[in-house]
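Example record for the data management plan.
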Amino acid sequence: MQTSTPRSPGPSRTSSAQRAATVALTAVAPISWGTTYAVTTELLPPGHPLFAGLMRALPAGLLALALTRVLPRGDWWWKAAVLGALNIGAFFPLLFLAAERLPGGVAATLGAAQPLLVAVLAVAVLRDRPTAWRLCWGVVGVVGVGFVVLGPRARLDTVGVLAGLAGTATMALGLVLAKRWGRPAGVGPMALAGWQLAVGGLMLLPLTLAVEGVPQRIDAGAAAGYLWLGSMGGLIAYTLWFRGIGRLPVGASAPLVLLSPLVATLVGLGLGESLGLLQSLGFVLALAALLAAQLDSPRVPRRAPGDGVRDPKRADGPADDLPAEDRPAHHVPQHDRPREGHAAGGRAR
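Corresponding structural encoding:
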């Protein structure tokens, strides 16, 4: 009786599982960020967006530095300063300002435009041309989120809208630059997050003291809100976020921010809001766009021999996987090419 040995999972299956795990962990960040709007309006003292950003950034950054005991070296001093200014120092106060002046869902919708901004910036900074697949689904995601949170009763404040758009732009640029620069060797994602949180917090400290000061009263609810924003929405979220964007393509990580407005909507439902038919449709569209952006675009089936001439410019897979006669000339391995001085089927010139 013949027995067969069990097959080990192929590399493609293993890599797919690893990517799915990376996507799931990275998604924790925008999920936690989706709670920011409810925490801001329900728990934090109003009129203090700078102080909220300071409390979210500086304690978490100092804690990360104490835990990792790693400081930037060389040109990473100015790179960390730039990323900290974009992702934390500028983004946090703009985020809280938009959250205070706009309904949570409306403020989150402005952030849903980030995948499209990232696609544009990636062309200029990374020389990474986005695929039509992800661009189309990015538009679908923005439309879907718009259906969810924008309605006839949506209150639009000019200052809040400008703050939300500016915050979205700063974080999009920070994401692209973080993808371009990566992480220095031997530095983990928590250390990278800690550098940026500390830099952003130190930027906000003098500005907060000069403009807003400390709220007159911080009750237990506000203290819990600051703790949540600094821990789950700060250090933990940004550690997972920078870990993920270092491993995922920029076109796959950017659409994950669609989770933030969707979570904000779900939190609103828990606070007594309701969804109509159009909003439910938008929710489904946004989820579909989020999932589709994690998939590769459908590939055109390969032509069978004799069906016509294969277009050598069509990138539908590694050319070395094709039969030798179907490979473009520049992909034909050396042993498959005719030797110098001999033409296939002819004389040497």
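Summary line stored alongside the record: The longest helix spans residues 220-247.
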